[in-house]
Design goal:
41 residues, rod-shaped
């Protein structure tokens, strides 16, 4: 009984992890805006 329980939960975890990773790949990348050293420009 315990083996089946652990296997099911591990499979559910792997499915959630794969879905999360797919979602992360589709997100737009946030880029840092480079600022000049002199703020008065």
């Amino acid at each position: 009984m315990a083996d089946g329980y652990l296997e099911k939960h591990h499979a559910d975890y792997e499915a959630r992890k794969a879905a999360w990773l797919r979602k992360q790949k589709c997100r737009p990348q946030v880029r840092q805006i480079e600022r000049p050293e002199d703020e008065s420009l």
